[in-house]
């Protein structure tokens, strides 16, 4: 077990190592759609890459979610099988829509799994970005 400070330090090392290993500018928040972003996540049990649709207006959130989900088979060609939740609850209680891929049995606290996480991140985020660039006009047309 790690102290809070040790855990924070490992997380910082992890993200620094990822950036140095794969120095690339990702889309992430630069989608030109307010509250629509791509995210990396890693914790003590798993790693995830996601599309987070965080609009407060449920009608808009649902519209973007439905647009992306209407392209499910095309998205899965790029990233593999995805999980989805139209009403995903964040730890802070905020409800968003999320579409994501997950890799189990890896840990941000285990340096031996970092390479596996990094490669997962690159492959999956690259797929999400290719999908977004290909269908951007359709997705943005709300």
Describe the protein.
With 142 residues, this protein is α+β, with helices and mostly antiparallel strands. Helices cover 46% and strands 23% of the residues. It has four helices and four strands; from the N terminus they run H-E-E-H-H-E-E-H. It has a four-stranded antiparallel beta sheet. A hairpin with a 5-residue loop joins strand 3 and strand 4. The model has no long low-confidence stretch (mean pLDDT 95).
How many strands?
Answer: 4
Q: Rg from C-alpha positions?
A: 16 Å
Low-pLDDT regions: none
Helix count, DSSP H or I runs of 4 or more residues: 4
Shape: globular
- Percentage of residues in DSSP E strands: 15-25%
pLDDT averaged over residues: 95
Spell out the helices and strands N to C.
HEEHHEEH
Biggest pleated sheet: 4 strands, antiparallel
In short:
This protein has 142 residues and is of the alpha+beta class.
Blueprint (SSEs and pairs):
Layout: H1 4-21, E1 36-42, E2 46-53, H2 58-69, H3 72-79, E3 83-89, E4 95-104, H4 114-140
Antiparallel strand pairs: 1-2, 2-4, 3-4
Helix pairs in contact: 3-4
Descriptors:
142 residues; alpha+beta; 4 strands; 46% helix; 23% strand; globular
């Amino acid at each position: 077990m790690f102290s809070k400070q040790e855990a924070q330090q490992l997380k910082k090392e992890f993200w620094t190592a990822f950036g140095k290993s794969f120095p690339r500018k990702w889309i992430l928040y630069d989608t030109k759609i307010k509250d629509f972003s791509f995210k990396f996540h890693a914790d003590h049990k798993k790693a995830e890459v996601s599309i987070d649709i965080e609009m407060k207006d449920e009608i808009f959130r649902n519209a973007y979610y439905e647009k992306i989900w209407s392209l499910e088979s095309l998205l899965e060609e790029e990233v593999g099988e995805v999980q989805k939740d139209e009403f995903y609850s964040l730890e802070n209680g905020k409800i968003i829509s999320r579409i994501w891929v997950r890799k189990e049995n890896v840990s941000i606290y285990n340096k031996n799994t970092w390479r596996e996480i990094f490669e997962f991140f690159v492959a999956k985020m690259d797929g999400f970005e290719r999908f977004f660039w290909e269908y951007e006009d359709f997705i943005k047309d709300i």
